[in-house]
Amino acid sequence: MACILSLILLPARLLLWMPFLVFRLLNIWGSKTSSDPGNPHLRNFHSFRNMHTTKDHVVNRSIDRRRGVVEDLHLAIEIFIEAIFDMLHKTVHCVLSPSSAFRIFRKLFSSASAGVKDVDNDVLNASIPPVTLGDKDPAPTERNPTLHHALNTDARTCKDIITELGYPYEAIHVTTADGYILLLERIPRRDARKAVYLQHGIFDSSVGWVSNGVVGSSAFAAYDQGYDVFLGNLRGLVSRGHVDKNIPSRKYWWFTVNELGTKDVPAMIEKIHEIKTDELKMIQPDEETNDEQPYKLSAIAHSLGGAVMLMYTVTRLIEQKPHRLSRLTLLSPAGFHDETIFILTVAHYFVVPLGPILAFFVPALYIPTRFFRMLFNKLARDFHNYPALGGLIQTVLSYTFGGDSSNWVGVMGLPHYNMDDMPGLSLGVIHHLAQVKWRGKFVMYDYGNASANMKAYGSPVPIDLGEYYSLIDIPIDLIAGRKDKIISAAMVTRHYKLMKDASVNVSYKEFEYGHLDFTKSNQEDILAYVMSRLLLVEPALKHQTSQKKTLKLKKKGQASS
Fold first, then answer.
1. Sign of CA dihedral 210, 211, 212, 213
2. Contact 163/225 with Cβ under 8 angstroms?
3. Are 300 and 218 in contact (CB under 8 A)?
4. DSSP per residue, 212-261
5. DSSP output for 298-328
């Protein structure tokens, strides 16, 4: 009977399997043609595959076992067909063999009454403690954990990437003056007298600084050079961290670049100062306390993060407050946007007059629900699994962003775009950047009327930060990309010229890369240059109380003689 049913249903089964057979044949043909170097049909995609190899995203490739949407559909239909035939087979078997069916039911009920031992979920999802580095063995030990997540998506955090590569990790929660709760992450070297703070840009998070693995990531490179590494996360996550747990979405998302530079960064850097000062005092209790900070803090920032760090530095100097920094390295920093791609130029004409009104209806740009974030995560996986599809998306996005050669497909596959959380972009930030482009100056946010500006700045017009570059008292390194169409090299040069005219100690360097290649691609020349600038900062000297007393005694002896 089972054989007869199989023969009857064979045409239907063949009909259902036909699309997948054709799909597999096309894949086999595609793989053969792609292996032929003389094939003209796929010549356009060779540059994409050569430019962005598996080396660019070593973390994603080495442990990533996710499935995309196409693979999920394929697998689901296969399981469905197999389940139907298996059910029919077992039904016919039970009808034709009552004795065996009775034995199956008796065994089923006896096992149910005896109880079945459950699998311990805590063992499967056990957290891995971070590695602690000692003086005798400073080399980190690589861990290879199995990451479990529902629906086969990648939800790794910065902590997961750092700890699975064998580095130590620490999470620090920082509350800003206006109640936002930020996550300051750390790869700690508690006894180090040199620290570095890394600040991300738009639609990014701390994951961007560790996404290239041990060899190509700025965070790991700085740690291996002996730095205490701090990774800042600005406000603007879908999870909406705030002291008010019931804060409305519109209220949470209404902020500008002002709040990032005058609220978020000061809160995180002051927390770094508090932590480092306390730790160094505990490690070296006999050190004489004075007003000098016992460590040197450098900062590396990308894109909007560069503008935020410049705003932080200048405003602290205007207010005559310590900024704690010894050097700034800015990768394609925002701040001037006279030359932008066509789509952004058109958008800013609508955003400048209508920004506050649009913010009432659309407070921020992000993927709103867990389902659509999961779908985006899986589609990004399909772009990696199917090179033809990935090459098409890469080409479309490259043309959309003015020909920028960044690895857009690789960026979409990063784990900080997952179903649980993702960085969003406030419409207030968009409105502020549109004002910057409209005015042609690096200005703080214009609140729209003289009284509001007077309350915020003590002036009827917003502060032009470029006019205060003469206050900058630390070295600045500006790095631009010749293929960067988001923030062109000409716009970075404007920062450089203003700083040079203001007698700031500034350097300028260009590379043949796109906007995202500074952080998301494993570019050894950029990383080597950034580390070389970072190493120009000498660590803070140790001043011991006993040494001071000895010098004082010598001086007294000389004076009496």
1. positive
2. no
3. yes
4. THHHH-HHHHHHHTTPEEEEE--S-BTT--BSSTT--HHHHH---HHHII
5. EEEEETHHHHHHHHHHHHHHHTT----EEEE
In a domain? residue 462: no
Would you say how long the chain is, in residues?
Answer: 561
**272 domain residue, yes or no:** yes
Calpha distance 44→33 (Å, rounded): 13
Bridge pairing between strands 228-232 and 194-199: parallel
Q: To the nearest 10°, the Cα dihedral for 374, 380, 381, 383?
A: 150
Query: HSE on the CB side for 441, CA within 13 Å?
Result: 14
Cα 295 to Cα 273, 277, 292, distances in angstroms: 9, 8, 9
Contact 492, 480 (CB under 8 A): yes
| Count of other CB atoms within 10 angstroms of residue 394 | 25
The sign of the dihedral angle between the CA atoms of 532, 533, 535, 538 is positive
**Dihedral sign from CA coordinates of 207, 212, 214, 219:** negative
| Distance between CA atoms of residues 527 and 508, nearest Å | 15
Backbone angles phi and psi of 325, in degrees to 5: -95, 150
| Nearest-angstrom CA–CA distance, 187 and 27 | 43
Residue 431 lies in a domain: no
The answer to whether residues 531 and 222 touch, using CB atoms and an 8 Å cutoff, is yes
The residues, any chain, with a CB within 8 Å of residue 104's CB and separated by 6 or more, are 94
> d(Cα 530, Cα 517) in Å, to the nearest integer?
13
Whole-angstrom Cα distance, residue 493 to residue 455?
Answer: 33
CA pseudo-torsion sign 532, 334, 296, 204 = negative
The residue among 333, 377, 324, 299 whose CA lies nearest residue 495 is: 333
Alpha-carbon gap, residue 429 to 202, rounded angstroms? 10
In sequence order, which residues have a C-beta less than 8 Å from that of residue 149 and are 6 or more positions away? 155
Structure token pair of residue 261: 């530079």
> Which residues constitute the domain of residue 260?
167-339+475-536
What is the pTM (predicted TM-score) of this model? 0.75
Q: pLDDT of 322-340, one tens digit each?
A: 999 999 999 999 999 988 8
Residue 368 lies in a domain: no
Sign (positive/negative) of CA torsion 278, 280, 285, 287? negative
* Tally of domains within the chain: 1
- Go through 227-259 and write b for each residue having 16 or more CB atoms within 10 A of its CB, e for each that does not: bbbbbbbbbbbbebbbeeeeeeeeebbbbbbbb
pLDDT in tens, 359-406: 888 899 988 888 888 888 888 888 888 888 888 888 888 888 888 888
161 has pLDDT over 80: yes
Quick one: angle between helices 69-96 and 370-385, nearest 10? 100
The CATH number that applies at residue 275 is 3.40.50.1820
What is the C-alpha to C-alpha distance for residues 398 and 217, in angstroms, rounded to an integer? 24
Question: Beta-strand (E) ranges in 439-555?
Answer: 476-481, 506-511
